[in-house]
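Lab notebook, design round three. We kept the backbone fixed and only want residue identities now. Task for the bench partner: fill in a sequence for the structure below.
Input structure tokens:
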């Protein structure tokens, strides 16, 4: 299987995992209502442990302080790279944008990023970001 095929398959599997997240009612308007956010970070084998330590011990508490709702987290490997993947739940896109702006402006987070970059180098490469809206025919988990 080619690297591109593996990446496409990995993404399809991750998107399929959204079906196992708590169900939301069908959305009347694609621009409003509950959403999920898929985040995919390229991480590096040489400092992967430092990335996970920073995310687990420092980013998550700050995200929680800014009302992030992390649904699940994974590590995925393709022939081309290692990825850290997670899904967030949001009540709507406006809330998502507001919380991300607050998180990115957080002085504690900025200081942590500076400190860990100085010690371990760059921890994150390419970042992919997708807003996911459930379709009206999306499977719902059993009650």
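Proposed sequence:
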């Amino acid at each position: 299987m080619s690297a591109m095929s593996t990446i496409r398959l990995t993404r399809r599997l991750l998107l399929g995992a959204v079906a196992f997240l708590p169900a939301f009612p069908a959305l009347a308007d694609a621009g409003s209502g509950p959403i999920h956010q898929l985040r995919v970070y390229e991480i590096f084998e040489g400092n992967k442990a430092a990335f996970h330590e920073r995310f687990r011990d420092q980013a998550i508490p700050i995200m929680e302080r800014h009302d992030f709702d992390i649904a699940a987290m994974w590590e995925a490997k393709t022939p081309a790279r290692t990825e850290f993947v997670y899904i967030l739940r949001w009540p709507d896109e406006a809330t998502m944008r507001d919380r991300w702006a607050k998180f990115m402006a957080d002085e504690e987070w900025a200081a942590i990023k500076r400190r860990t970059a100085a010690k371990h180098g760059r921890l994150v490469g390419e970042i992919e970001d997708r807003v996911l809206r459930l379709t009206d025919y999306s499977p719902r988990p059993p009650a």
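Keep this in mind before ordering anything: The two ends are 38 Å apart (CA to CA).
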